[in-house]
Amino acid sequence: MAIIKWTPMIDSLQDVDNLLGEFRGLNSSGLVPAIDIYEDQDSIIAEAPLPGIDIKDVKVSVENDTLTIEGSSKKSTEIDEKNYYRKEIRSGSFHRVVQLPVAVDGSKTRGTYEDGVLKVVMPKRDELKSKTIDIEIKK
């Protein structure tokens, strides 16, 4: 059996971090999905891992160059007779709003959900895409 050093500060720091998260207005259920946002030549792409969340309970919208992802996670069963040592699996709703770095065409936005990862592809507006022009050389 391995000996684990007791570190009371770590649990205390996690409690303080949870309290500060609630104070800052984060969702008290703890469900705040992380989001990666990057771009390619034609689009802004957002990826958010949503493992264990039924995609039917997720709503994605793009309006005024702002991405909104909201939804809920439901825990199907909970056993009251258990004496939990830690209970970190949460259920509840989440709401995430991110201002996009460039203007996008919300009407052409599309999303996919694969292996627990939501991927939203938002095409950049045409006026923002770089254009290559040919230069005529006159002699």
Please give a handful of descriptors for the protein shown.
mainly beta, Immunoglobulin-like, 139 residues, three-stranded antiparallel β-sheet, four-stranded antiparallel β-sheet, 1 helix
What does this structure look like?
There is one protein chain. This protein is mainly beta. The protein has a domain at 31-75 and 91-128: Immunoglobulin-like, CATH 2.60.40. Helix content is 12%, strand content 32%. The protein has one helix and seven strands. The protein has one helix at residues 8-23, and strands at residues 36-39, 43-49, 58-63, 66-73, 92-99, 110-114, 117-123. The strands form two sheets. It has a four-stranded antiparallel sheet with strand order 1-2-7-6, with no helix packed on it. Strands 3-4-5 form a three-stranded antiparallel sheet, with no helix packed on it. Strand 3 and strand 4 (66-73) form a beta hairpin. The protein is elongated, with a radius of gyration of 22 Å. The chain starts with 7 loop residues before the first helix and ends in a 16-residue tail after the last strand.
